[in-house]
Design brief:
This protein is an all-alpha fold. The protein has 20 helices and no strands. The N and C termini lie far apart (49 Å). The structure holds phenylalanine.
Length: 451
């Protein structure tokens, strides 16, 4: 029996979708991109792209989901028989991402536990993080705990599981973000770092900043991986898609901005204005930040608050990933949701293990200089996602026509305020941007250009 679950209210849907959107990307990646690409000017570019490009893609996916009531795998096929392959490609993305996302989720859980048990001093050591991820068994234990926590929510269902947990975790996440950001920017000397984060550096507005912002945006909004199509299939016909999308965007962007406030000024001050510390990427969260926390009063409290916040952000994202994968297989096989959930969990654990070991005993395996986890990340984020997003826009723009989406949006309120803008964005602006993102990220990965 195929059971179709659903969200009970528009608010529940918004919080669940925001839970998916707000993830490691917001807290970990956004701040260092902002630091790298000129602070305030990057924020501005990001904001403009969010209310245009991000808006168009998000509306599109949610409308496709609600109109067809299906997961990505069949949604495209239902709208046009020849276009089913887009759904297949979109479905591969969460299947690839879920396992490695849980590896990082496990790291976050470990760090939250370290701080909760008073280990702030240990986490300051240079080799604390490296020692942990290179250990053959410990990271695997944490990733299993992370995956099982995700599974429990999925087993409870869309309404009792996803919606209810989002209603608790998302408000807590906002409050924690505010508290940490206020604490950090009121530390001595933080104003210089604050200026560095907020002051536009016009010399850094260039093509790369633009592409970085666009790439970050659609990853951050959980686009092009079937998630928003699946979530869209769970919303009632009378829920207003346009205003929901605006709320989700505001939520996602606000948390990214706050994460920047928590991280950029503190690291800037701690490193004495050394920008390379901020631009180091992955090591920022697990190596630099623990040192910054270690230098503050109440380091255990602030560290615990921070990593709990990151854990909430990560787990609500992995929930959306697992739900999407489960819904794909439920649609495909017609089998019981619970059975599929358990099978997906086992798959996720088995596939996550190589990504985890790639930092330790299997670190000799490398793909063009990338670890196993980075390789999966590259295939999904830099190759498949732009392709899926591009195909989706072309599909809506030229195959089934934007009217398919705009009519669906108008079902609830009879209005679509940004309709004209939407049509231009989905037909022309987004496809052009997506081609640029795709080409540049591939050239960058092969060292042909330097982003
Ligand atoms: N949107 C999430 C973030 O910003 C990323 C994500 C990826 C979410 C994959 C779900 C699935 O981190």
């Amino acid at each position: 029996m195929k059971e179709k679950h659903g969200f009970s209210s528009k608010l529940g849907f918004i919080l669940a979708a925001a839970g998916s959107a707000v993830g490691l990307g917001n807290i970990w990646r956004f701040p260092y991109l902002a630091a790298k690409y000129g602070g305030g000017s990057f924020l501005l570019i990001y904001l403009v792209l969010a209310i245009t490009f991000g808006f168009a893609l998000l509306v599109t996916e949610i409308a496709i989901g609600r109109k067809t009531g299906k997961s990505a795998l069949f949604a495209f096929k239902e709208l046009d028989r020849r276009s089913g392959f887009i759904g297949v490609l979109a479905s591969i993305v969460p299947i690839i991402i879920l396992p490695y996302y849980c590896v990082i989720g496990g790291w976050v859980l470990k760090f939250a536990t370290v701080y909760l048990t008073g280990g702030a001093k240990d986490a300051v050591a240079d080799d604390f993080f490296t020692g942990f991820i290179t250990n053959p068994t410990e990271p695997i234990i944490w990733l299993v705990i992370f995956i099982v926590a995700t599974m429990v929510v999925i087993l409870l269902g869309v309404n009792k599981g996803i919606e209810n947990i989002s209603k608790v975790l998302m408000p807590v996440l906002v409050v924690l973000s505010l508290i940490i950001a206020i604490f950090v920017i009121t530390r001595p000397g933080a104003t210089d770092g604050l200026a560095y984060y907020l002051k536009p550096d016009l010399s850094k507005i260039n093509g790369n900043a633009f592409l970085a912002a666009a790439g970050q945006l659609f990853y951050s909004m959980s686009l092009a991986m079937g998630i928003m199509i699946t979530y869209g299939s769970y919303i009632p016909k009378d829920a207003d898609i346009e205003s929901s999308v605006r709320s989700i965007e505001i939520f996602d962007t606000a948390i990214a901005f706050l994460a920047g406030l928590m991280i950029v000024p503190a690291v800037f001050v701690f490193s004495g204005g050394d920008q390379s510390a901020l631009q180091a990427g992955p090591t920022l969260m697990f190596i630099t930040l623990p040192k910054v926390f270690g230098s503050m009063v109440a380091s255990n409290v602030i560290g615990a608050a921070f990593f709990i916040l990151v854990f909430f952000a990560a787990v609500t994202s992995s929930i959306s990933l697992m739900e999407t994968v489960v819904s794909i297989f439920v649609d495909m096989t017609g089998k019981n949701r619970k059975v599929i959930t358990v099978i997906v969990t086992i798959y996720t654990i088995l596939m996550a293990i190589p990504s985890s070991l790639g930092f330790g005993v299997w670190d000799n395996i490398s793909f063009n200089g990338m670890s196993i986890l980075d390789m999966f990340d590259f295939i999904s984020n830099s190759v498949l996602m732009p392709i899926v997003a591009l195909l989706t826009c072309l599909f809506i723009g030229f195959v089934v026509k934007p009217k398919t989406v705009t009519d669906e949006v108008k079902k609830s309120t009879n209005k679509f305020k940004s309709e004209k803008l939407y049509v231009v964005l989905v037909k022309w602006v987004s496809p052009i941007l997506l081609v640029l993102i795709l080409v540049s990220s591939i050239l960058n990965a092969f060292g042909i250009i330097k982003l």
